[in-house]
Write a structure and sequence with these properties.
The complex is a heterodimer. Chain A is mostly beta strands. Chain A has strands spanning 5-7, 10-14, 19-24, 32-37, 44-49, 55-58, 61-65, 71-76, 85-91, 101-102, 106-111. Classes of the chains: A mainly beta, B mainly beta.
């Protein structure tokens, strides 16, 4: 089946540092989604990407849809303590049902 | 995006019993999904809840263990049957609704944290 390989699995950074994480797949996708999950909550959508090559920002967050349609990255600039959480990439398969496939997640820890 | 109310938010259950989780959406949606998130893991789709017909289950999940109801376009339930400690997970409801503008149509409930003892 289609899989999303997300890396790194965890990050330990200092407050103020920039963060970069990515997702790759052997399959192509028409949509890439980035979610953040905090303890006790469901995933919340951060950024949605709909076009190959698209670069989209949401405040300090920037995500890009890879030109090959097989990858995407998420950057967080000047991290702050509230950025702590688990970040997931997700994508619906090109054909078939609209269910989402998820990456394994990147757990972000920030040292103040 | 849609607003989802999922309950209970958490429960501790005895093995061998069953728990029914409810998902209520603030508006009609076409697609509703149920996911499982095991401790420290990513989300795995259990099934797609279809209105007026039987749910569509993913490989590894069966109706006898996870019966699903969807009586209308705003409500669904997932039952975890004959529970064992291995069923201890977070169960999440998700919906898809396209609002006709960019921003993604997939929304998640806050989840039900289930502990089986």
């Amino acid at each position: 089946g289609q899989q999303l390989n997300q890396s790194p699995q965890s990050m330990f950074i200092q407050e103020g540092e920039d963060v970069s994480m990515n997702c790759t797949s052997s399959s192509i996708f028409n949509t890439w989604l980035w979610y953040k999950q905090e303890p006790g909550e469901g995933p919340v959508l951060l950024i949605a990407l709909y076009k190959a090559g698209e670069l989209t920002s949401n405040g300090r967050l920037t995500a890009q849809f890879g030109i090959t349609r097989k990858d995407s990255f998420l950057n967080i600039s000047a991290s702050i303590p509230s950025d702590v959480g688990i970040y997931f990439c997700a994508a619906p398969p090109v054909q078939g049902a609209q269910k989402l496939v998820f990456g394994q997640g990147t757990r972000l820890t920030i040292n103040p | 995006s849609a607003v989802i109310s999922q309950k209970p938010s958490r429960d501790i259950c005895q093995r061998g019993t069953s728990l029914t989780i409810q998902c209520q959406v603030d508006s009609q949606v076409t697609m509703m999904f149920w996911y499982r998130q095991q401790p420290g893991q990513s989300l795995t789709l259990i099934a797609t809840a279809n209105q007026g017909s039987e749910a569509t289950y993913e490989s590894g999940f069966v109706i006898d263990k996870f019966p699903i109801s969807r009586p209308n376009l705003t409500f669904s339930t997932l039952t975890v049957s004959n529970m064992s400690p291995e069923d201890s997970s977070i169960y999440l409801c998700s919906v898809v609704r396209w609002d006709g503008h960019r921003g993604g149509g997939y929304t998640f409930g806050s989840g039900t944290r289930l502990t089986v003892v």
